[in-house]
Every structure is written in C-alpha cells, then in structure tokens.
Amino acid sequence: MNEQEQVLEIYGSISNKTSEMLDSAKQGDWDRLIALEHEYSALIERLQSTDTSPPANAVFRDRKVTLIRKVLADDAEIRRYTEPWMNQLGLYLGSARQHHQLQRAYRPDQF
Known about the structure:
By secondary structure, this protein is an all-alpha fold. It has a single domain, classed as Up-down Bundle (Methane Monooxygenase Hydroxylase, Chain G, domain 1). The protein contains three helices and no strands. α1 runs antiparallel to α2 and α1 runs parallel beside α3. The longest helix has 49 residues. The radius of gyration is 21 Å and the shape is elongated. The protein starts with a helix and ends in a 5-residue tail after the last helix.
C-alpha cells in the first residue's frame, strides 16, 4: 500500500469514527463518546505522521477533501448535541461549587 492509499485509509477511519461519535452523541451516551474521542485522537496522530506529501493527483485530493468535509460536518453535528450537555454540566458544577463554598463558610468545623 502506498502512502496516498494509507492516508486515504486513515481519513476513512477518521470519518467512520466521527460517525460513531455522532451516533453516541445522539443517544446521549457520553461515556462511549469520550472513549471514541480517544480513538479519534489516536487516528489524528497517526495521520499527522503519515500525511506528509502534497497530493499527487486530483483523484486523491478530491477523495481527501470529501472525507474531510464529512468529518467536519459530523463534528458540527456532534457539537449540536454536546454543547447543551456541557452547558448543563457547567451549571451543575458551578452550583455544586457554590454549595461547597457556602458550607465551608458557615460550617468550617466540618472541613
């Protein structure tokens, strides 16, 4: 397998991974989403060390662009699901922090 085939294979794997991530986000399966993000990161690292040459032909470039656009679309859709969850989590953590600070201020003997 030549370098361009390897690069397209990795982009395909990344595209598949973002599809899985999107499915997890739609289902609200945050633990699975986080695990998939780790796998995604590993693929990105692999891509960075493999995709070192400029595109040699239009077919390769077009396929690469198609895969990148799909990954970006998936990413935007994943954010649509995760941002409300992250905002809610932030509110919860902020409320818990305030509660802890109030308890510490008014009941210092328990801390």
